[in-house]
Amino acid sequence: MIDLKKVEDVVDKLANIEKICFVGCGASMSDLYPAFQLVKEKGNKISSRIFTANEFNYSVPSNIDDKTLVIIASLGGNTRESVAAIAVAKGKKATVVTITATAGSGLTKGADYVLYHGFHENYAAKTHKMQTALYLVVGVLEKFDGYTDAADFKDGLLKIDDLIIEGVKPLDKVAKKFAESIKNEPLIYVLSSGATYGTAYSTANFLFMEMQWLPAIVMNSGEYFHGPFELTEKNVPYLLFMNEGSTRHLDARALEFLQRFQAKYYVLDAKDFGIGNVIAKSVVNYFNPLILTGAMRVYAEKLSIARNHPLTSRRYMWKLENY
Amino acid sequence: MIDLKKVEDVVDKLANIEKICFVGCGASMSDLYPAFQLVKEKGNKISSRIFTANEFNYSVPSNIDDKTLVIIASLGGNTRESVAAIAVAKGKKATVVTITATAGSGLTKGADYVLYHGFHENYAAKTHKMQTALYLVVGVLEKFDGYTDAADFKDGLLKIDDLIIEGVKPLDKVAKKFAESIKNEPLIYVLSSGATYGTAYSTANFLFMEMQWLPAIVMNSGEYFHGPFELTEKNVPYLLFMNEGSTRHLDARALEFLQRFQAKYYVLDAKDFGIGNVIAKSVVNYFNPLILTGAMRVYAEKLSIARNHPLTSRRYMWKLENY
Fold this sequence. Notes:
2 copies of one chain form a homodimer. The first copy, chain A, has 323 residues and is an alpha/beta fold. Chain A contains 11 helices and 9 strands. Chain A is globular and about 55 Å long. At the A-B interface, helix 2, strand 2, helix 3, helix 8 and strand 7 of A face helix 2, strand 2, helix 3, helix 8 and strand 7 of B. Chains A, B: Homooctamer.
């Protein structure tokens, strides 16, 4: 479980927040997506913006100021562009909270507050960066913006790790089947909606493209119907993350289409993990990406075995000067 | 040229706007992206959110109210999800402006104001939906939010159509070469940044995937370096839209990487169209997608000829009940 008290301590110290900016790169930007989406949908006066770090650094929004909270995340804490964003935000007098797994890293320097999270301990820990960002903005919305579902949220966070850890246990067989079936495909499509769009983005861009060198196309389940569904054919592979909650209709409509045209589809459905029995309806939208990210990790591991390509293999990242 | 006066007349009638939501589907959502980005970067108190229509309809943000301007676009004006968004927004007391090319269509009913634009007249007209949305929010920002670059913006809009029409004239040969070279590729990557990300998204999802049945992966030029660049290899095809203005560094860095690893890259560079000589620096970021969208249309037409696949061919869209 994440250290809820440490997040609450940061919220206690914050003053006068009217705007939130989420800044990160790659998988860390995706991990901020559920919190971005929560503020986008539930913020009253508080606004929500998300940036890949270098777009924030080179095209700094004009209204970053002392009423702005900038939340910056990086797992290793040394992503150059994200570290640079601290100085950009502080230069505009924003309050900066960084989220990282790594003590002493670049992201721990120059920020107003640093929140640490685990990552390697278990499948639930893969979502602790997301959980930390979510609980931070829940606190901010409650303190400054009249948000009334914070208790439901906290209750959910007390339960979600067990739900993930128990939920992934029976996945080995189905994930292995997915991996064997998909291992020689030249391309896969990934669909989801709502807060889980970030998980779909992350799965396509980082689990598949970065870590498996497997081209992947991500799209919102709603957008699918406005053009890209033209590529749906028999046996073309699709991975669909289905949400419990308000955008389920979009995902279910996509599933129906994939079935109708006999695509080779794989579904990870938050409902299969019993999320609706454990998490309050008022906040369930934002717990979908947590359970689905944990589950997807099993699928990615099985894929890496089936393709004989470890998730840590890179040809460029960390190996080239300046990249 | 778009009818600036008609847009100004709508702005004159608006009162008390604090938030702007952009709602559309597919290519029409992309056409709203530059205006979304302008408000995101230059809004002072006014916030900016963008939605695919069904995500807006099924997961309605809690703070849509009588201080919210909802801008909804659809070329043909009968996209079911976008038409439904009018009632959703009006149900929450928002002011609704719709943008469409089609008199009498669903999008012209129930909105507070309707703005019409051309599309088929010439290459500049392909950007008139974008221009209308941009000029509308420029007016809103100036009237309610202290925006000071409206005169530069209007000056740019008076010049941009000629820049597009003259700029596309010499493209036939290079676009044909692109088309011949790319016509048998199984997949293409599309990169850009800033306001032009919407054009990259639109090119990948609609010109390539919907209208050419050619799989395409879109990404922000900044995000490229945080994982997906692992797939860059000799002769893998990339289309890069380069911007004049504040995010040019992100695009140029991507170009350098594509050159270094001998990808089969194609560049559409806003600088080649002389945009920097004609458009004021204060607003040039938001004119890049206009010139690049106009230019890309020529490339798409040549591609459709090379692949013997008209841009109007569909297998599902408009042909299935309920889709």
